[in-house]
Structure formats: C-alpha cells, structure tokens
Amino acid sequence: xxxxxxxxxxxDPALGFRAxxxxxxxxxxLWPLSRAGAPKFLHDLTGSGRxxxxxxxxxxxxxxxxxxxxxxxxxxxxxxVLAQLPGLDASAVLAEPSxxxxxxxxxxxxxVLLEREGDVVLGSFAADQVVDQGPGFAAAVREAVVAARAGxxxxxxxxxxxxxxxxxxxxxxxxxxxxxxxxxxxxxGFTEKPDAETAAAYLATGEYRxxxxxxxxxxxxxLDHLAEQRPALHEGLLRxxxxxxxxxxxxxxxxxxxxxxxxxxxHAIAEPVAAAGGVAVVPGDFAWDDVGDFASLxxxxxxxxxxxxxxxxxxxxxxxxxxxxxxxxxxxxxVTVLGLDDVVVVDTPDALLVTTRARAQELRSxxxxxxxxxxxxxx
Amino acid sequence: xxxxxxxxxxxDPALGFRAxxxxxxxxxxLWPLSRAGAPKFLHDLTGSGRxxxxxxxxxxxxxxxxxxxxxxxxxxxxxxVLAQLPGLDASAVLAEPSxxxxxxxxxxxxxVLLEREGDVVLGSFAADQVVDQGPGFAAAVREAVVAARAGxxxxxxxxxxxxxxxxxxxxxxxxxxxxxxxxxxxxxGFTEKPDAETAAAYLATGEYRxxxxxxxxxxxxxLDHLAEQRPALHEGLLRxxxxxxxxxxxxxxxxxxxxxxxxxxxHAIAEPVAAAGGVAVVPGDFAWDDVGDFASLxxxxxxxxxxxxxxxxxxxxxxxxxxxxxxxxxxxxxVTVLGLDDVVVVDTPDALLVTTRARAQELRSxxxxxxxxxxxxxx
Lengths: 379, 379
Prior knowledge:
homodimer; alpha/beta; 11 helices; Mannose-1-phosphate guanylyltransferase (chains A, B); transferase (chains A, B)
C-alpha cells in the first residue's frame, strides 16, 4: 500500500483540519474519583480549573478554528459534555448508544465529517489525556496535518522522559520526505506496553517514542483503510453516517450500532497499515501523560513541600511525617495523614480509597471487589 | 498513718457500696472518632452496641444496686450522659462547670455522697475504659470493698498481659491481713508509664500490676486524706457539697469551682497515702484496656480474616492485600484499602485520619496541626 495523493493545498497546514475527541473509557484505575457516571475526562485532574475534556478542546480549537471540534461520547455523557463545553454546537457531539471501542468512535466521526464537509484532515485526540498547553503540541499537529494531506495516517510520537512500562511505543524509521513535515518519519511498528528492560532497550536505540494514540489522517484515507481492513465495520459506519443528520439517525443507530465490531483503532488500522508503510510519525516534544493511575496523577500536581501532593483544596489536607504520595480531597472533609510515605488517599463523598503509589496500578481488583460486594452504585 | 476503723458491718461486702464514674477526658488519641463535643466515653468502641459509659454503668449497677451509680461529667456532656443512661436519676449526674482533673471530680462525688448517704464505701471507675463483663471484675470489687471498709484506699491491680509501656504500674507488698479480702496487699508504690525494659523488669518480679486508676474507699476516709494532703481543695469541695442539693448549688459552683486545684487523685492521694501505708491493692484478673489509641482499639475488635479489624459496619469495608490494622467505618461510606498492612483509617463525616498502628500514639501532633489550621470545629 502506498500513501494516497493529497487532496488539498498544503500551503496552510492547518486549513480544513478537524479535531475528533473520543470521550470514553471508564477510568477504572482512577476509582473512586472516576466513575461510570462521571468518568475521568469530566474531571479536573491537574487542579487547573479545567476538566481534561475542556483542556483538550481548549488545546484543539485554536488549531481547527471555531466549530472544528467533534466529540464522540456515550449517550449517557452527552449532556455532561455539552454542559462542560458551552461553546460547542449540539451537532458537534456524536453520542454513541453503547461503547464499541475507538475504531467505531473515530470511524463514525470520520464518516460523519466526510458527509458534512468532504475529505477533511482530522486528528483524533483522546479527551482523557494531559498535554502541556505550550506551543509544542500545535507544532506537532501542524506537521502531522501536512503529512496527513500527503496520504499518511500520522501519529504523534511523544518524547519519552523515561523507560515507562505504562505506555506503548512507536518506532520511527526513515524520513518521510514530505515537504512541510521535515521531522516526519515512517513508522516501523507499534509495541504494547513493554517490561522495564525492554523499555530501556527501546530508548537506547533512539528510535522509539511513546504512543499517545493520537492519529491524524484524511477522513477518506482513514475510511479507505477501514474498508480494506474491516469491511463490515466500514460499511456499518457509512450507513449510520449517511443518515446521521436526518430523522433516520435513531433507526440506523438502533439497527446497526450494536452489530459493529469492537476494536481499537490501533489494531484495526495503525498496526496493519504501518506494516504496509502507510503510517508516519511526527515528534511530539511536549509533556504528556495519559493519567493512567493515581501514581501518574500525582506527578501532574504541584509539589507541596515533601508531603503528599493534593488534588482539591490543600487547606483540607494535613500531613505529618508523610513523604510523597497524593491526596484527592474530594469531599470537603479534612484529610489527615500521619507517618505514611507514598500513600494514596482518594476521598469522595461516598467512597474512600487508601493505597500506595506502588499499588495504584492494581486498582481494578478493588473495583471488582466493590462490585462483588453488590455496590455497583459506587462504580 | 494507719487505716481508719471500719464504720460498717462487713458481712455483706457490697452493702452500701456506691460507684462513682468520672466521665471526662478529651480522648485526643482517638481523634477524629472522639471529639471534645462527643468524647471517647460516649462512643461504642468495641462494637458491643453499648458505649463505654453505658458498659461501665452496666458493669457497676449489679454491684451497687439500683440508684447506686453517680456520674461526674462536664456540664456540656450532662444531657448526652442522661440520654445514654435513661435509668439514671438526674440527681445522679454531677455536672462540673469546667474540668478540674480527677481529684476534684471524685472528691466532689465523695462529699456529695457523704451529705446524702453518710459514710458509704465508694469506688471510682472511669467511664472510658473497656473491662471484661465477666465475673472477675465483680470479684475484685467485692474484695476491694471489704478492704475499704477496713479503712484503706484500695486500688485494683490489673493482671498485666505483657510489659506495656502505655500504662502505669502498682507494686504490691505484704498481705493486708483483712478478713474477707484474702488477696489484698499493701501497696508499696505507684509508677508512671515505664519504658519497655523497665516494664519487663517489673513483670519479672511478680509484684507489679497495671494501675487502672480504680479506687475504692470510704467517703470519709477519702475526704480525711484530702483534708491532710490538699486542705484547700478539701474545704472547697465540702463547701460545694454542702449546698449541692439546694438552690445554693449554682452560686457555690460559680464562686468556688474555678478556684479548685487541678490535680489527679493519683498525685493528690494515692501516691502520698501509699507511701504512708494507707493504700491496698486487690488483684483484678480480668481483661482490661483504657483504649488509649487506635492500636489499642484494634485489639478489642473481632478478627476479620487477616484484614484490618472494623469498628462499624464491616460490609462498608473492602480490603485487599492488607493485613492487620483497623478501619473505623463511621460515615456510611465505603472504605477500600489496597496493599497497606497495619494501617489505621478512621472515617467520620467531616474528618478522615490515615495512619499506622505504630504511629497511633502520636495522634496529638495531628490534632495540634488541625488546630493550627484553624479547624477547632473538628476537634
């Protein structure tokens, strides 16, 4: 497979660029802060005053211009998304009847955008990541848009600050040679989360970066790849999109949505297309985190002496002889910690979690135990 | 000094015995469960369904007979005490305008009882201790009453289950030789809380027992000792007692109470009178604890596999890979603990404490920090 021809003038790299923001995922490893009814992306996890969703849109709108952002979210979160984004037109929120993973979400957005606007370049940026709001992100996206116009599926490879075992990696190959995208390279492949030794070996080569799951591509290119890789999913999404902005939407969703294959865009497109030479990577030299757990969350919060960092009102937290760690002060109560290092305390109005930074990755077991206790109301 | 003569027939050892229950103390080391407005003695700390105060009275009433218990407490706790003890006559609660330590509390009760009933034997038993409800306690008290009739100030020496550094000790000497009190011995002295090595040395002698601060004595004997040791305090208490059951009580309290010396009965009477040969000890071979901190509290709660013990509804506590420790589930929220051994989690509606069993003794520093934060409302 070779990159398809560019369909638009590339003199203004961002022209016609549209952002797709998948806002899904349970955020189980941030329970009890993140809940099924109020998942991670609806929360301010950095104390910035903006939720992850809001910060994502704040970052993208300057690049797309007004009306250039589409959010794909679950039906149950549609109202919350619109409430958090009062500048968004209701038509810019695509509500899924049920979660069908990232390929269906992004593919739906691509198909709807193709119907509405033709073959625009779109970039998919998850609503639940933390990205530095400086110029680095925009620089990466502009280059990615240029490479996308040249027919590539373009991912942003985040400069690794260490051999993380919490992220997948993307491996860069030869320079792409596309004018206006001087840093873009071919992707030699993607990897799942490695062990620590493997991660260190990756970084030693200089070829690997973190895969943030950001994909920039022309809508038609994405859908053509999908037609080749997953024809049934492609056909279903096109059928739904054909009636999205009509009175047929409800019927089409009811008939077709439940039949769609659940698959991540990484497996459906990024990996096979990369193997065929159709994926490029541009360097993303900015701070990024997917806030995968409370240990990760703690690194995003301001330091507070040697004590635990605080999400919420630090005036509500009293810590003595407690180094590191994180306290989420989320109930208005005073939280006191004495003599525990690297502790994680997450205080919400109806559920409390006490664990350690080292165990924060294992939170699923707690969520499972709460479910077994018959307390789905807390999940 | 020699023991004063018995003033009553000792054929029924419990005849005329009255119980005085000092219900005071902030219980700072059980914060945030214990508060100034709802101190330790008002709480059920064992999950028995009875508060410490209620359990204390439950234990004493069979020994005194109906109407034989007097509670001395702060004015602000009078209503709560009466609410918890509906069987108590209002006159049986002596309300102090301000805390003046245990000598004033017990001395007041002795003086009031002397006015009301003459020279009865009274025993003082703090409202905030946990005592096994089996026959051992009654057996010790009956023997103490006999020795008290013979003119001694009698303490109960608790059989030590280990070299505790959290309690003071009482050292037994020669047998008392009072008929009906075969186990009673002279007290050679009292000690403050020892270090671990000293505590072990104490136990090795076989002469030491824990000092639970239980004192049994005739009212007149106590007041005579007080007249010798602390004449001003004695005089003030007698003046107040003379008008207690009259319309002069308020005026007398207002005039005299604030002038009373603040001193513990241990220092005012037990130590000096012991040095003079006037104090006896009877063995208390029953389980006892003063619930001095959360580490101590945890040992009083039922085991729950290897996980933390729970005060409150165990259905609200989910622990995984967490051995030992204690969770006070006091807010109705679900408390989850992952991967922390010997943790102490105290969850109340407006304040949360997270610490360890090993640090539980240092809670005062947390309380001080909360006060410095301007949150006296939580103390």
